[in-house]
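Hi everyone,

Forwarding the result from last night's run.
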Amino acid sequence: MENLTFDNDELKQVTWEDFVPFEEQVKSKRWYTDYIDNLDCNADIKNALKAILDITQKCGEMILHIGKIVMHIAVSVAQKYPNTITGAILGLAIAILVKSSLILGFLLAPLNPLFVAVPAFMGFLADIGGVQQIKNSIVDVLNRK
């Protein structure tokens, strides 16, 4: 493996201004609270999600609202890839059920990652338009060369 070296000219010091475009995308705490309140799930899950919003970390003189950033990423992914999220949750439920079985859980334990990955991948295919969309994208890339 080759070692990477950088000159001081190549290194860039990260400043608060680098976070400003991302900070503008993150919505207010009230927006996320309203979003959580409108979810179709029980109150315990809603309270846990609201607790995530309150997570902060002091970094020097700044306070980073880590919870809001995590919620922004989670909501963005859920809105952009709903079938993928549904497939992953369904796969997790299947993996938990299989694992809870005494004999079957022991025998099928090595396959648990597949129980999550396959439904998530099928959901991803549905989100992007299916296998035909992938084929078209590959053909487009090959035709450009």
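The helical segments are 20-25, 29-37, 43-53, 66-80, 82-100, 102-108, 112-128, 131-144.

Cheers,
N.
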